[in-house]
Amino acid sequence: MQKITTFLTFNDQAEEAVNLYTSLFKNSTIKSMSRYPDNVPGLGGKIMVATFQVEGQEFLALNGGPHFTFAQGISLLVNCEAQEEIDTLWEKLSEGGAQLDCGWLTDKFGVSWQIIPTILGEMMSDKDAEKSKRVVEALWKMKKIDIAALKQAYNA
């Protein structure tokens, strides 16, 4: 059991969110779901708590009612090896949400995500300050991150 688990509290869309998240990542599974009794106003029959894993990371999802919302101050960062993965996650997760700057997006449930190429950290921490500066300047102009454009800035 991992020591710290991300606990996501939704209004009433936990099941839809869990199904979306586990469908997008190859190494994912829904471990358990419990439902509210039918007599609970507004939540009867809906998921109370779901436990699921995405890429080896365990999450809990709860339907807690309309007073629960998400804020951009906490996000789920996904390290991506290839542009194809960035493109797929960017499109699927931002559908019905918002595409923000520098690889950030908000999904239709209000959860904030960062879809980031693994190579970005390597380029930004290069000992050559000019290379790093060019990468950061290129990044600031992007919404969805383009690995080829970052490499072009890095190697300019």
Question: Could you explain the architecture of this structure?
Answer:
The chain has five helices and eight strands, in the order E-H-E-E-E-E-H-E-E-E-H-H-H. By secondary structure, the protein is α/β, with parallel strands linked by helices. It folds into two domains: 1-69, Signal recognition particle alu RNA binding heterodimer, srp9/1 (2-Layer Sandwich); 70-156, 2,3-Dihydroxybiphenyl 1,2-Dioxygenase, domain 1 (Roll). The strands form two sheets. The protein has a four-stranded mixed β-sheet, covered by helices on one side. Strands 5-8-7-6 form a four-stranded mixed β-sheet. It is elongated and about 65 Å long. Helix 4 runs antiparallel to helix 5. The chain has helices at 14-24, 83-94, 118-124, 129-140, 147-155; strands spanning 6-10, 28-35, 47-54, 57-63, 75-80, 98-99, 104-106, 112-117. Strand 3 (47-54) and strand 4 form a beta hairpin.
List keywords for this structure.
156 residues; alpha/beta; Signal recognition particle alu RNA binding heterodimer, srp9/1; 2,3-Dihydroxybiphenyl 1,2-Dioxygenase, domain 1; 2 domains; four-stranded mixed β-sheet; 5 helices; 8 strands
